[in-house]
Amino acid sequence: MSDPVRRDTIAAIATPAGRGGIGVVRVSGPEVPRIARAILGRVPEPRVATFGNFADLDQGIALYFPAPHSYTGEAVLELQGHGGPIIMQMVLGACLDAGARLAEPGEFTRRAFLEGRLDLAQAEAVADLIEASTREAARSAFRSLEGEFSAAIGELVAQLIELRALVEAMLDFPEEEVDKLYAKDAATRLTHTRAALDDVLAKSRQGSLLRSGVHVVLAGRPNVGKSSLLNRLAGDERAIVAPVPGTTRDALREPVQIDGVPLILVDTAGLRRDADPIEQLGIERTRRELERADVVLVVHEAGGNTPLTEPLPAAARRIDVYNKIDLVPGFAVPAPGIAVSAKTGAGLERLRQAILEAVGWSTTGESVFLARERHLRALESARAHLAAAEGELPRWELFAEELRLAQAALGAITGEYRADDLLGEIFARFCIGK
Ligand SMILES: Nc1nc2c(ncn2[C@@H]2O[C@H](COP(=O)(O)OP(=O)(O)OP(=O)(O)O)[C@@H](O)[C@H]2O)c(=O)[nH]1
Ligand SMILES: [Mg+2]
Fold it and tell me: CA 312, CA 169: separation in Å to the nearest integer?
């Protein structure tokens, strides 16, 4: 597959499994004209919607995109037929019989990357756009797909290239005079680039929150109103609420969004010692959820006098929530807690903002980058190398080496420097047909 000349032709159903008005089978590769002839009896005119019969199995619109002007950069055929699972499988089967092989997940996009139609960050944005769970995440993914993130990385790389050229020149002419002027210039440029990188990193850390996965766990003693709070925050009666302590047994997960930031809220069994055996199992689960929490909402009953003694994992941020304030007029909240009422909704907006703050979201209104963990690691590595570069001044050879390493780290984001196992890891998570 790495040899473009001998690449085979792939096919897959590009629309989701299930029934729909239209279903699309997509074929990409050098054999597309031959397969088109086998299925349609002819090769459709390029980029013209052509009504036809699909191998006497279905009829619909065929679209032909000759190389290199297609999504993958190869010849592509799209067959838009009737969206039923059986008919789609039959049309796909006809394409396979005609010489295509079944595409692996993400293989179309992988080819688009290998053909230079997209860089790696843009290819990842395709998957992120499909996976986006909020409007904000989708908008951010789309900006990355359009190349905004890649351009920001490219700008940093360009600055590093200039700086490296400057240092190379210095190494060539190590005369005293030239050295001083250049040295000052190089130091200034480095400071500038470091600031620019910090800005990209900050926007990436922010944006990474838009990829779902921030776990917010509600924990506390039984009957304090954890399930009621979850229902309030979810805007729906998801969890069972009852006046008896020990109502919740299983951990319940509920995806919610606050200002476009997707979170997983987890309701848990109340923590207490004298629990029955089933409840005890629930409490075990609570402890496991706490281990994975990014934020723990420790729920108390306002005016209650049995504080939670359970140790919380050090990694999680903690927010103390005092519930049922409707029952305790004039309740004085122990700082830095938040007073709420799941019953009346009082304090809920403050709690929402406190959760966002705890996960590190600040609504600056600036566009953020929907960064992946991989991008954050690369940016942090580049940042460390630039800091090290500054420490090497004025040992120019070592300075230059740190710049080179920083550039390589950034290049890995867009795929300039890449390892094939990384590609495998990225594209395997795509859906089939993309
Ligand atoms: N007045 C008042 N009652 C509340 C409030 N929140 C919850 N309750 C009541 O408190 C009782 C317990 O609520 P739950 O939400 O089931 O409490 P929990 O913490 O999930 O309890 P367990 O699942 O048993 O650990 C129910 O009767 C709720 O209606 C509140 O803000 N005000
Ligand atoms: Mg409960």
Answer: 56
SS (H, E, C) 279-333: HHHHHHHHHHHHHHCCEEEEEEECCCCCCCCCCCCCCCEEEEEEECHHHCCCCCC
Nearest alpha carbon, ligand 1 atom 16: 241
- What is the rounded average pLDDT of the residues 15-42? 96
Local confidence band at 174 (pLDDT 50, 70, 90 cut-offs): low
CA 153 → CA 82, 191, 223, 386, distances in Å? 43, 17, 50, 15
Ligand 1 pocket: which residues have CB below 6 Å? 222-228, 241-243, 245-248, 270, 323-324, 326-327, 341-343
Token digits of residue 416: 């300039």
83 secondary structure, DSSP code: E
- pLDDT mean over 84-100: 97
Token pair in block for residue 145? 């797909």
Which atom from ligand 1 is nearest to the alpha carbon of 228? 15
Task: Give the global pTM.
Answer: 0.81
Structure tokens at 284: 């075990």
Q: For residue 215, what is the enclosing H or E element? A: strand 214-220
Q: Exposure of 419 by Cβ count < 10 A (0-12 exposed, 13-18 middle, 19+ buried)? A: exposed
Phi then psi for 214, rounded to 5 degrees?
A: -80, 115
**Alpha-carbon gap, residue 129 to 266, rounded angstroms:** 25
pLDDT at 199 > cutoff 90: yes
Angle, helix 85-97 to helix 32-40, in steps of 10 degrees: 120
Q: Are 113 and 339 in contact (CB under 8 A)?
A: no
Q: Which stretch of DSSP H or E encloses residue 50?
A: strand 50-54
Q: Cα–Cα distance between 380 and 176 in angstroms, integer?
A: 35
Residues in the chain: 434
At 277-322, the pLDDT tens digits run: 888 898 889 899 999 899 999 999 998 877 777 788 878 899 999 9
